[in-house]
Automatic annotation (TrEMBL):
Residues annotated as domain Integrase catalytic: 102-239
GO BP annotation list: DNA integration
Organism: Luminiphilus syltensis NOR5-1B
Pfam families (UniProt xref): rve (PF00665)
NCBIfam families assigned: transpos_IS3
GO molecular function: nucleic acid binding
Name under which the protein is recorded: Integrase, catalytic region
Signal peptide feature range: none
InterPro entries named among the record's database cross-references: Integrase_cat-core, RNaseH-like_sf, RNaseH_sf, Transpos_IS3
Recorded superkingdom: Bacteria
Length: 239
């Protein structure tokens, strides 16, 4: 309005700024078009295409911590919204639940491992299972074993393979599945002086980090690929 007043009525710039309550610096400001905005938009489109479950937070942390881009989070979020990428993911309604008891926190690696099983199917419809193991200290994924059947013998072999390069854990926390209660696994743990920590039946919140890891495995791997064969699933699991 101040600019139009000066152009149309030939009013002095100082008087026009006083009339509309702005500073002369604001009046004379010219926005600087940044060519980096196109680069930010390109990065956001590439990240959200390759990682369909990523929201703004993960995209920004990747650009800042992995790619070391100096862009401000407000700027990245403005472009993120202009591209309407915030409309891809519908927020879930959160249910109010009782606050769980605090978990014991390891202070070093190999103090407690967490393990659990998942299932999925090949393109032909045949189901397969996965055996996931992570370290409770830093949530590091230690192994994903994939096969049509994973009896206790196979579980023991997978754990031995991880121990060869990672070292032996002091304890392993898991649920009360038949594979975890099998005599072969229990005897193996006793021979290696590893404590088996079983959660209460129907209480997955007592082992939340492996459940959160399972969600990542489901969203970032199982749901995004159609597996032609067991070998195909194993290769993607390794990647």
């Amino acid at each position: 309005m101040a600019v139009k007043a000066v152009e149309k009525y030939k009013v002095n710039i100082r008087l026009s700024c006083q009339a509309f309550g702005i500073s002369e610096t604001c009046y004379r400001y010219q926005p600087k078009l940044s060519s980096e905005n196109a680069e930010v938009a390109d990065w956001l489109l590439r990240l959200t295409t390759a990682n369909k479950r990523w929201g703004f937070g993960l995209c920004f942390l990747y650009l800042r911590n992995v790619k070391h881009r100096p862009w401000n989070h407000k700027r990245v979020y403005r472009i993120y919204r202009e591209l309407e990428l915030n409309l891809r993911i519908k927020p879930k309604q959160r249910l109010l639940r009782d606050r769980p008891d605090p978990l014991s926190v390891p202070v070093a690696i190999n103090q407690v491992w967490l393990m659990d099983f998942m299932s999925d199917a090949l393109v032909g419809g045949r189901k397969f299972r996965t055996f996931n193991v992570i370290d409770d200290y830093n949530r590091e994924g230690l192994g994903i074993e994939v096969d049509f059947s994973l009896p206790s013998t196979r579980v023991v072999r997978a754990l031995d393979q991880i121990i060869e390069w990672r070292g032996k854990p002091a304890a392993i926390r898991c649920d009360n599945g038949s594979e975890n209660l099998a005599a072969e696994l229990v005897n193996w743990a006793n021979r290696n002086h590893i404590t088996m920590l079983y959660i209460q039946p129907g209480k997955p919140t007592q082992n939340p980090y492996i459940e959160r890891y399972n969600r990542t495995v489901r969203h970032e791997w199982l749901d995004l690929h159609a597996f032609e064969s067991l070998q195909h699933a194993r290769e993607l699991a390794t990647q």
